[in-house]
Design brief:
alpha+beta, six-stranded mixed beta sheet
Length: 375
C-alpha cells in the first residue's frame, strides 16, 4: 500500500512539473508579446527556452514508458509553439556555402568586431589581419560592423582609410557620439561599409544619445532597385568579468546573494532598455520607402520582445536558411544567437552562413539575398 501511495504521489509530482515546464516554455516562446516594462521576468524564460524544450522532450520519453497519454502535455506545448520554434531552432539540412556569389545577389555580412582587437595590436597584431582576411575571403557587398573603433587621425592605430582600401569598400557611413570616443584618435560606434555607392546616409539618435540609442541606415541601388540597409547595436547586459565568471563557473557552494542580485539587475535593465530601443527603431523602419535589410547585434535571443518588435513584417535570414541553434556569441551559453539579419519579405534568402571562428567574441554571419521584384 505504501508503495502504491508513493507511485501515485511521484506521478502527480511529475505531472505538475511537466505542466509547469510547459507553461514556462510557452511564455518564453511568446515573450515578444509581453511588455518588458511590466513582464521583464518573462525574458528569463526566453533565454532558457531551448533548455525547457529539452526538458519537455525528456518528459515525452518518460511518459512513453509510464503513461503514454500524458506525453500529450509536452507534445501539445511543442505544437502550440511550433511557429516560434522555427525562429529558435530550425531543423533542416543545408548545402555548403558557395563562396562565388551570383551577380544578381546581394551579399550582406554583420559582425560585432569587438574594437577590431585594438587592445591587442602590440601583442597580437595578427588578430586584426585575420579578421580582415576573413572578410575578404567572403567578399560581401555590404558589411555592418558593431563596436567599431577607427579614426581619421594620422596617429590612429585603426585608420578608416586602411579599412576602406584593404576591404575594397570605398563607401561607408560611420555613426558615433564624439562624447563616447574610444580615445583621442579613435571613435567608437557602428559602421556600414559598401562596395556599392551610397545613395544617402542617415543617423538616427534619441535621448540619452548614448551608444545604444544611435542607429544608422544607408540607401543603395542594386539591379535598378533601391534598398535601405540598417545597422544597430542594442543594449548589452554590461556584465563585468566577475559577473561572467560567476555565471559560467558557479557551483551551488559558490552562489552569493550579492552576485546573483547584480546579474539579475543587469538582465532586468537590459530587457527594459532593449524594449525602448527596439520601439524607437521600429518607428523609423516603418517610415522606410524602400525594402529593408536590418543587421546588427540585438543582444537578445529569438522570440524576445526586441527581436519580435524589430522583426515584425520581416523575415530572419537564419530562420529562413540556417539550421540548428546557430549561436553567434560564444560566451556564457551555447544558445545565444543574438546577431541577426532581417530582410523584407520580397527578398529570397539564397544562402546563410555563420563563420565559426573565434577572433571577436561574436561570430560573423553572412546572407546572400535576391530581390524578387513584384509582378
Amino acid at each position: 500500500m505504501a508503495k502504491s501511495f508513493f507511485r501515485k504521489f511521484a506521478k502527480r509530482i511529475f505531472i505538475v512539473s511537466n505542466i509547469f515546464v510547459a507553461l514556462l516554455f510557452l511564455l518564453g516562446c511568446y515573450s515578444g508579446y509581453f511588455n518588458p516594462k511590466y513582464f521583464w521576468f518573462i525574458g528569463f524564460f526566453t533565454l532558457a527556452s531551448f533548455y525547457l524544450l529539452i526538458l519537455l522532450i525528456g518528459f515525452i520519453f518518460l511518459w512513453l514508458f509510464a503513461d503514454k497519454k500524458l506525453a500529450l502535455i509536452s507534445v501539445l506545448a511543442i505544437g502550440l509553439a511550433w511557429k516560434p520554434l522555427g525562429q529558435l531552432l530550425p531543423l533542416r539540412t543545408t548545402p555548403p556555402f558557395t563562396l562565388v556569389k551570383h551577380p544578381s545577389h546581394l551579399r550582406v555580412m554583420t559582425w560585432n568586431v569587438e574594437h577590431f582587437e585594438i587592445l591587442e595590436y602590440k601583442k597580437h597584431p595578427e588578430k586584426k589581419q585575420e579578421m580582415l582576411n576573413l572578410i575578404n575571403e567572403y567578399q560581401p557587398d555590404i558589411v555592418c560592423f558593431q563596436e567599431m573603433v577607427a579614426g581619421d587621425s594620422p596617429k590612429a592605430i585603426n585608420p578608416l582609410s586602411e579599412f576602406t582600401s584593404r576591404l575594397g569598400m570605398p563607401y561607408y557611413h560611420y555613426a558615433y557620439n564624439r562624447k563616447l570616443d574610444f580615445d583621442d584618435n579613435h571613435h567608437f560606434g557602428i559602421i556600414i561599409m559598401s562596395r556599392i555607392p551610397l545613395l544617402s546616409k542617415h543617423t538616427f539618435s534619441y535621448e540619452p544619445n548614448n551608444y545604444n540609442s544611435i542607429f544608422e541606415f544607408v540607401d543603395i541601388v542594386k539591379n535598378g532597385d533601391t534598398f535601405r540597409i540598417v545597422n544597430l547595436h542594442l543594449q548589452s547586459m554590461k556584465f563585468s568579468s566577475g559577473n561572467l565568471s560567476y555565471i559560467e563557473k558557479t557551483t551551488e557552494k559558490d552562489i552569493t546573494i550579492k552576485e546573483t542580485r547584480s546579474v539579475l539587475s543587469k538582465l532586468r535593465t537590459g530587457f527594459y532598455r532593449r524594449k525602448t530601443q527596439s520601439e524607437h527603431l521600429k518607428k523609423e523602419l516603418n517610415k522606410s520607402p524602400f525594402p529593408l535589410i536590418v543587421c546588427g547585434d540585438f543582444n537578445d535571443v529569438p522570440n524576445s520582445y526586441a527581436y519580435t518588435t524589430i522583426g515584425k513584417g520581416l523575415k530572419n535570414a537564419f530562420a529562413d536558411k540556417g539550421t540548428g541553434i546557430g549561436r553567434t556569441f560564444y560566451s556564457i551559453s551555447p544558445t545565444l544567437r543574438i546577431d541577426n539579419i532581417f530582410v523584407d519579405e520580397k527578398f529570397t534568402v539564397e544562402q546563410y552562413l555563420r563563420v565559426k571562428k573565434k577572433i571577436s567574441d561574436h561570430f560573423p554571419i553572412i546572407a546572400d539575398l535576391y530581390y524578387n521584384k513584384p509582378q
